[in-house]
Fold this sequence. Notes:
The chain is of the alpha/beta class.
Amino acid sequence: xxxxxxxxxxxxxxxxxxxxxxxxxxxxxxxxxxxxxxxxxxxxxxxxxxxxxxxxxxxxxxxxxxxxxxxxxxxxxxxxxxxxxxxxxxxxxxxxxxxxxxxxxxxxxxxxxxxxxxxxxxxxxxxxxxxxxxxxxxxxxxxxxxxxxxxxxxxxxxxxxxxxxxxxxxxxxxxxxxxxxxxxxxxxxxxxxxxxxxxxxxxxxxxxxxxxxxxxxxxxxxxxxxxxxxxxxxxxxxxxxxxxxxxxxxxxxxxxxxxxxxxxxxxxxxxxxxxxxxxxxxxxxxxxxxxxxxxxxxxxxxxxxxxxxxxxxxxxxxxxxxxxxxxxxxxxxxxxxx
Length: 338
């Protein structure tokens, strides 16, 4: 998937069309479910049942495609972050494509919930997309808004998807890693083969051997540079145990504190630009000022973005590493860290 080019006009038209038809501008599928206009289940376009692979392949439009996975926690207080990322898709793509942070992104969206809490849609997986269907994928997420009282969510199943159910030319042809951003505010449940068997149910899962959560993330990190983004205002935003859990899994340098959820989409683009070496803090501030209307809101957004990203690895183009390599940790540079 991901053979088309992104069009800001097409993305805007998609939202306007929903509004004209009487649907919600964002999270319209969830709104339809709440109104009884749609069944309370995973959207057909995001259903992982029978999933074999999600593919990010090069094309004439995208000769050097780079996969980017957005993992969105759809439980509890995190629904507002999903809605904000949907609103900021246009800004995200302007920074990546128009400002040349990452000219050929292929973006996949994964919604995660809480399997032990018996949610109806604990795993939702889109295709890799390069055009305005990115926004449609986020709009199709079922934001269940529940979650259990365990202090854990089922993020590990998204890591399993990244490790074992994606195929990308960026990794297979160039030996380079893509990006994976996990927006959440809890720890992982322990990985269980039985869960992915029930959620996906293909031959691969039926033959899968038991793995730990740490081993699943280790495999995912061979293909993706993984960041965990913790919104400061989320219910677990100040929980040191959550911070330590993720630092142990993916490295302290890759655990980010999102100062303001309104900066969610822009934060993703800025972090990618820093890693690719295609921008710096000053350039990010200038570009945000250019794509947003001048004013106090934009000033606050710039402060939130530049204060939330990690400059560790700046200019090192973290995707451009030998296949299977892991970026060593290092101290952060001029930034508030967890």
